[in-house]
Amino acid sequence: MGMVGVSEKDRAHRVLNILFQEFGKVEVTRRDLEPFEALVATVLSQHTNDLNSGRAFKNLSVRFRVTPETIALADEEELGEAIKVAGLYRNKARMLKRLAQTLAQEFKGSLNSLFTLPLDEARQRLMRLPGVGPKTADVLLLFSMHMPTFPIDTHIWRVSKRTGFASQKAGYEETRRTLQILYSPALYMEAHLLLIRLGRSYCKARKPRCFTCPVRFECPKLYT
Prior knowledge:
The structure is a single chain. By secondary structure, the chain is mainly alpha-helical. It folds into two domains: about 90 residues, Endonuclease Iii, domain 2, CATH 1.10.1670; about 110 residues, Endonuclease III, domain 1, CATH 1.10.340. The protein contains eleven helices and no strands. The longest helix is centred in the N-terminal third of the chain and has 18 residues. The mean pLDDT is about 90.
């Protein structure tokens, strides 16, 4: 997508207002987590649903202190057992240990030093951590560090292309930049959560509910 015009910004805000009316205020579940806890929760959420990832985080919290020092020294099999409900638990347990060890060694067990860095630098530092890609970094930056970035998950990616806000060929970074232009930073969190709700409830990957979708009159093309 090239330059974003005023009309596209207006349409984006009309969509957001409709979603507010449809879904109401969306609860933010990661806001009170420490940065490392939020990072762990994000890793657990990969390739599973919110219910299972939430259960896995709760189980982990019961058995271990969720700190880099504790997770770095934890038995990998015990970690896996604690987070089993999240799926891919062996890979995730291995990843959590690597993350914790890296943080303990390179960040003295705390991500707080990233709070003082410019957004782009903090983002790059996070993406150098084991297993942390753009989406994980953006989720942590937005939800835990309250920095103005726009995470793009699979639902937002799909919705952005179907509504025409992002081009069909747009990758992660282009989609992210486009949505950051369409919405003001103060709306990034709400827009992120509401677009996910739209993707889950109506704009589904298979059999999208186009003709009952609340934003159908703002969508340039109906998919069937």
